[in-house]
Amino acid sequence: MSITISSMIEETGISGSFILLSADITNEKKIEEQVIQTEKMTAIGQLVTTLAHQIRNPLAIIMSATQHCLEKAENENGLRKYYEIIYRNSLDANKTISDLLDFAKPKLLELKKHSINQILEEICRLIRIDFSKNRIKILRRFDRDLPKVLCDKESLKQAFLNLFMNSKQAMPGGGCISLTTSYNPVDRVVRIIIEDTGNGIPKEHLTRIFDPYFSTKEKGTGIGLSIVHRIISDHHGRILPESKEGEGTKMIITLPIDSKLILPKTSIPIPPTLHLKEEGLWLG
């Protein structure tokens, strides 16, 4: 809440009463958090790109030299196994760098009109058997009159699938995922809610879950939710998390349906120009 108090001065010069104005600024604060997250992602992406290129050059030399040693080393030579270890781990490091560059660099989006309900249905069919084995039910409440959204279908499928897999990991003993879609004709946005009955997210971690490389899992990379945030932002949408530890997590996603992809009145960076191709629009 934003509260402003002003005093009213009477003709005698005495302050005899006050005016109190209060306003709900929840949405403004959420937009501000979204802007901060987007700017943080941009800065980290630039840093990752620079470091990755600086590391890849000496790594390429290490790999080349090790490969030369492997070709020259005899099978009975005791050093050969160490060369193999160096080369194998160099390949792993190079793959990690490639993953980081893929995460950091802008992705060309093939924008066409798609049904969000259909995209979610395709994902449900894809994960149905696996989730059933893990005793996870999926409940769907879809708006049948939902308008199509101009989007990159494969990117959104990746984002939604990441959210589903996060929910699965939060429910090791089974549970339920609720999918809800609706349309706001005033703002011309489609709303998608993905809610699970999992472990929930601690309050102190909630503001950091979209930070790259932040993870509370033992083997987590911390990139999954960052990719989700980037994909939704690339579509000029918003994703807002709500969670209580031990009670589950809700992800609220809003996507504009208009071809102009109108942004809220904030300073969120605007992606590059849309270029018309023969089959749809490309964001490049």
Structure notes:
This protein has 5 helices and 11 strands. The chain has 284 residues and is α+β, with helices and mostly antiparallel strands. The chain has 2 domains: 77 residues, Helix Hairpins, CATH 1.10.287; 153 residues, Histidine kinase-like ATPase, C-terminal domain (Heat Shock Protein 90, 2-Layer Sandwich). The strands form 3 sheets. A 5-stranded mixed β-sheet has the order 4-6-7-9-8, with helices on one face. Helix 1 runs antiparallel to helix 2 and helix 4 packs antiparallel against helix 5.
In total, how many domains does the architecture comprise? Answer: 2
Structural class: alpha+beta
Radius of gyration: 25 Å
| CATH fold-level topology of the largest domain | Heat Shock Protein 90
The share of residues in extended strands comes to 25-35%
> Roughly how many Å apart are the termini?
40 Å
CATH superfamily of the largest domain: Histidine kinase-like ATPase, C-terminal domain
| Spatial strand order of the main sheet | 4-6-7-9-8
What is the helix tally? 5
The 3D shape can be described as: extended
CATH architecture of the largest domain: 2-Layer Sandwich
Main beta sheet, described? 5 strands, mixed
Number of strands: 11
Mean pLDDT: 79
Helix content: 40-55%
Low-confidence segments, ≥5 residues, pLDDT <50? 261-284
